[in-house]
Each structure stands twice: as C-alpha cells, then as structure tokens.
Known about the structure:
The chain is α/β, with parallel strands linked by helices. It has helices at residues 18-28, 71-83, 93-99, 149-159, 203-215, 268-271, 292-303; strands at residues 5-15, 32-34, 40-44, 52-56, 63-68, 89-90, 103-108, 114-119, 136-146, 163-168, 171-175, 183-187, 192-200, 220-226, 233-238, 244-249, 262-264. The termini are far apart.
Amino acid sequence: MTINIIDIAYTRLKTPDVAAATDFATRILGLEPVDRAVDRLSFRSDSRMSTMSYEIGDPSETIVGFELANGEDLLNAAKTLEALGYEVRYGSHEEREQRHVSEFIAFRDPSGGRIEFAVSPQIGGNGAQLSRDAGITGFSHVGLFSRDPGRDEHFWTQICNARVSDRVGELPLLRLSQIHHSIALVPADRCGIQHINHQVQSIDDVQRSYALLSQHKVPIVFGPGRHPTSGARFVYFEGPDGMVFEYSVGVREVDEETYRERQFGFEPKSFCMWGATPKNQGVGYIDLGPGGQRAWDECDRIAR
C-alpha cells in the first residue's frame, strides 16, 4: 500500500550549544521561538506551531517529519514499513507534545536517515511572529544526503507517493504536491539533512538577507542565484554545526497532468543559471565525497 504524504512538516536538529543555535535561529534566520526549555527550543516559520527545533545532542542526528492525513493512514504506513523490514517506533506522549502533533511514527530511511510520519500538526491562531524582517512565508523543503540516490528514490516514489520533477545528474528533485520539490536527494557518503529551505516573499528579501548574512560574516555557501530546475531565486548559508539553510522565492508549480520530468547534466549551469557556483562542497549544496571539489572544478572549467 502506497504511503500518501501530504507535506513536509518539521525538522529536528541537535547541537552541543543550544544557546548559540537559538541565537542564530532568531537573530540571523529570523524564526519565532516557542516552547523554550533548558535543553531544547522549538521555532515557528508559518502557521504551524513548530517547524524546526534544536536540542542538546549529536548534530549528525537530524530528523525530518512529514505529514500524513489521519491516524488510519499512519497505521497503514507503519504496517507497510514493518512488512518491508523497517523498524518502526511510535512516539511517546512527551515526544508528541514537543512536536505539536497528535501521533507520529519514527523509522530510518534506506540511507539511515531519521524520518518521522506525523498526523495533525497543530496550527496556531495566527502566523509566525518572525524575530526579524526576513520575509519568511514558511518552511518548504529539505535536501537529504543519500548513500544511493536510485535506491532512495525508489523508497520515496514507489513506497511513498513522491514524484520526480527533475534530475541533476544523479540528484533527483522530488515533489509531494504541485510545488516543484519538497525533497532533494543529494549523493553523499552519509545520511541526514543536507539543507533546510524557507520560502520568502520576494527577491528583495533574498538580497536583504544576503546583505545581513555578509554583514554578520555568516558563511555564504551558494548564491545569490537562480535554479534552472525550479526557477527559484536563492541564497544558501551555513548555520550552527555546519547545517546549511536556504532562502528562496519563485519556486515553480507543476501541472500534474502535463509535466514531465527533465534530466539536467551535472554541471554548474544546471545548479545556477546566473553563474554562481557552490562553495565548500563538503558541507554545502552538494557533497561529492573525496575529490568532489576537483570534479566540480573540472566540470566548471569545461563548461566555461
């Protein structure tokens, strides 16, 4: 039975320094803090009560949560995963309260990344009260490191209901709705979250944030630029513990009846039509493993 995912719901990050991560999430990223505790803090970016959190722990232990329609779908998802050999755990009452959901199950994806399927993310009475004027309209997508993009694509598109919008080399961009993509599977020798995207209202917000990031000496990983795949204008930057964040605007919406997936070459112009190239591949937009920077430089040389 296909697992029908409605939308991406939240990320949960770990850090050795919650205070520093909180300062970044509010002063730089611009999110609204909620549920403050000594060892953890949650944040809002849109109408949902929690779309990101930090807690004490190992930064490599990231979690992505996805929304399912109801408890019956959650039960069927658990049965499907267990029948395929996945170890499934139901969330405790305390964990459900921390995530502001009524129920959730937890498991690991084929690459070993921690995934949760949740029901009924709580909606606030108003939108997020952003801690700075970043223009954020909401949490939109993630990049996931993938040890085997073909295998992981099969999980998300055959066991779950994601569809391929485009591919850049072996990197598939997967959608859950009409929005061009909610998941990017980035080839790597590890698992977990590769980047976290927040949509903003306008290209002016992207540029203003670029100026603020530069002023505060936040490492710019990629951009400003424009993706030829989704059409989004973007800037990527590095946050606490090497996590990469993205602001973008203008992502393409897909007509499910007429759209056909496209294959882009793995080359700089497939990532940015304005000429920007990713920096610091090990933690940034792409991760090619040992020799990755040399491979990127070579394809950049050929393209030019």
